[in-house]
Amino acid sequence: MSTSDEDSRGALRSILPPEAVDRFLDTCNDHGWLLLGLGTVAAVSLPVLGLEAGYFMTVITEMFLFAILALSWDIVGGQTGYPSFGNMAFFGIGAYTTAILTKDFAFAFPVAFVLAGVAAVAIAAVIGAVVLRLRGHYFAIATLGVLLAAQQVSRILDITGGASGKILLQTPSGETFYFLFLAVLVVEMGVVYYLSSTRFGFVLNAIRDDEEKATAMGFNTTYYKTAAWMLAALFTGFAGGAYSLFNTFIDPQTAYNGAWNVELIAMALLGGSGTVAGPVIGAFGLHTIIEIVESYAVGWQLVLLGGAVIVTVIGFPNGVVGTLREYASEMDYYKHGGMAATNDDAEVSSDE
């Protein structure tokens, strides 16, 4: 370990529980990359093994999409502790950027897709300079205002098609979007997993736990918050940029979908916010349940979503991943003797 890494670890030990810092760093090894690689190979193999374009491919593609959105929200909401209600604003910006460039200016889709992410990041930098000065519920309300303002602007402007939206007929195949959303998700998971074991990731967690202490330790929290906000906007913009052509239609209601804005937060909480795997697991699980409800109990989707949020917050505040970690920690504790081991150690110390 380098001197700078050791210094960072030492500084973060003064903000976070020392044993948690050491355990987290020690467990961020090649196993996470191995699992990510195996999952990618499995997902890529599905079309090769016979998954054809149709209903099931569309559902899995949407799972990838929601996983991207949930993990992007978690960068700011879970890792940094700034619960945003406006992430769908960057989704809409990316969606309209691609739609306008491909239909009105004849840009090639790959170019428009990249520019969708760039546009989302640029606007996030401007908005972040204002809203990231706020904290708690003030920040949440401000981000919701950003979402509503972006939706209204899209209704007014002629270039966006106004309230009628834009119909996009010249679009790639469904299989193309399957691999595209998969690629974006894998890259995002890799980036977040890597950052979680670096100084950047630990400072974000320090901001979440106690921003004033993090500032007192000399960390420029504004820089880290803005970087996290822009990173989340980048991947959200990519998701929106691909979705407009995947859906072949975009309008203000679709681009800034309020129900999706709640869904992606519920997915992150359900799977376990503040983790890499949690939002992805939550997205896959909750979207599967929603698809089943839409097939057999149309109209109950929002009831299910509200119920999932309530049950998660009350019964599983740490989500699936957090609950499993707690259970594994307890099993490890009892495996090594539990309180008996602690008492034995205490007796030995007393005798000495």
From TrEMBL:
Instruction: List the keywords (alphabetical).
Output: Cell membrane, Membrane, Transmembrane, Transmembrane helix
What topology in the membrane does the UniProt record assign?
Multi-pass membrane protein
Q: Which residues form a coiled coil?
A: none
Name its cellular compartments: Cell membrane
Q: Name one GO cellular component term.
A: plasma membrane
Picking any one GO molecular function of the record gives: branched-chain amino acid transmembrane transporter activity
Q: Which domain of life is it from?
A: Archaea
Q: Where are the transmembrane segments?
A: 32-49, 107-131, 138-157, 177-195, 227-246, 266-286, 298-316
Please provide an example of a Pfam family that matches this protein in its UniProt record.
Answer: BPD_transp_2
Query: Can you say what this protein is called?
Result: Branched-chain amino acid ABC transporter permease
Query: Source species, please?
Result: Haloarcula salina
